[in-house]
């Protein structure tokens, strides 16, 4: 018979910038499958201008990318014990956000970004917790199909939602894009779509364009 136990657990996250009252906006960014936060956060270095704080949580499960040694990556979840893993990482992400914001002004603007697998992660964080945010960016990722429609619409209806992908992204097929459109229709959200010439990666130029845009007044 399966049993469960709650234990103290340490998890890490990376930060670019210094939390202080000078910070005007926070980018809370979730990496994709097989990545580590300490490398993923480097893709946001151009945003580190003294007024922007970049926070990169890391998937709670690390593994060797090939065989039993060498490079290590992290993942947010697998199909095994799926719902419990989702609940665990939502608790973890909420704790990271709460800790970071203790050193910031309460009116700081917040962008939530998820790349690839991190898109599903950040979507659940945005819609299934009480996190305050102003902008949601799914980069090379899509809404997960299990988002609760009513709760998701309530959390996202007055937020800026942006879908970003490269025109040469081998993972975002026409079928995946159609699936994304169907999920967005189900939760009654019409995201803006931005494209760049490139593959399955963060495009620094487009990232800066989004960063320089004024936040929508809710």
Number of separate strands: 9
Order of helices and strands: EEHEEEHEHEHEHEH
Task: Provide the residue-averaged pLDDT.
Answer: 94
Shape verdict: globular
Question: What does this protein look like?
Answer:
This protein has 218 residues and is of the alpha/beta class. The protein has a single domain (13-211), classed as 3-Layer(aba) Sandwich (Rossmann fold), CATH 3.40.50.1820. It is 30% helix and 22% strand. Strands 1-3-2-6-7-8-9 form a seven-stranded mixed beta sheet. It has a two-stranded antiparallel ribbon with strand order 4-5. Strand 7, helix 4 (149-156) and strand 8 (160-166) form a beta-alpha-beta unit. Helix 2 (82-101) packs across helix 3.
Short summary:
This protein is α/β, with parallel strands linked by helices and 218 residues long.
Task: Set down the secondary structure blueprint.
Blueprint: E1 13-16, E2 25-30, H1 37-40, E3 52-57, E4 61-64, E5 72-75, H2 82-101, E6 109-115, H3 117-128, E7 135-139, H4 149-156, E8 160-166, H5 174-186, E9 192-196, H6 204-212
Parallel strand pairs: 2-3, 2-6, 6-7, 7-8, 8-9
Antiparallel strand pairs: 1-3, 4-5
Q: Which short descriptors sum up this protein?
A:
218 residues, alpha/beta, 7-stranded mixed beta sheet, two-stranded antiparallel ribbon, 22% strand, globular
């Amino acid at each position: 018979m399966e049993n469960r136990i709650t234990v103290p657990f340490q998890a890490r996250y990376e930060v670019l910038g210094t939390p202080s009252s000078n910070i005007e906006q926070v980018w809370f960014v979730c990496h994709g499958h097989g990545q580590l936060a300490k490398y993923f956060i480097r893709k946001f270095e151009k945003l580190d201008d003294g007024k922007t704080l970049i926070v990169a949580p890391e998937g709670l499960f690390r593994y060797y990318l090939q065989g039993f040694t060498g490079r290590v990556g992290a993942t947010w979840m697998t199909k095994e014990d799926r719902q419990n893993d989702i609940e665990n990482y939502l608790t973890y992400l909420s704790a990271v956000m709460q800790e970071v914001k203790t050193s910031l002004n309460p009116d700081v603007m917040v962008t939530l970004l998820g790349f690839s697998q991190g898109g599903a992660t950040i979507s659940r964080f945005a819609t299934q917790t009480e996190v305050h945010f102003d902008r949601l960016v799914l980069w090379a990722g899509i809404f997960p199909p299990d988002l609760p429609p009513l709760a998701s619409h309530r959390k996202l209806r007055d937020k800026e939602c942006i879908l970003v992908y490269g025109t040469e992204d081998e993972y975002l097929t026409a079928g995946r894009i159609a699936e994304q459109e169907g999920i967005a229709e189900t939760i009654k959200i019409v995201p803006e779509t931005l494209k760049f010439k490139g593959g399955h990666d963060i495009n620094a130029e487009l990232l800066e364009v989004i960063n320089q845009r004024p936040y929508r007044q809710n």
